[in-house]
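Quick one:
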Amino acid sequence: MVTPVARDKELSKALFGSSHMHAVIVAISDIDSDDFSAPQIMELTGLAASSVHTLITRLLRAGLIAKSGGLPGERTILYRREETNALEALARLGVRVAT
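Output:
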């Protein structure tokens, strides 16, 4: 199990310009399936929809994730990891393995 250290929000702010970007990156890296949605990230992080959508847009622009379609009959957009190694490396910043 991976637990953010106390300084995670400050580290995230310093590295990414957002207190919550690291939490979103960790959530994306922790999802087992190839595809994920903003509601999944919201559930995993406890962040508001507006925050998650803003950060997902930044990750899209950076090329770390891409749109992969949508759910039939729903407005939910699915995303997939594009730069898996980069996301995993970023997710490990500032986290420790709980013992």
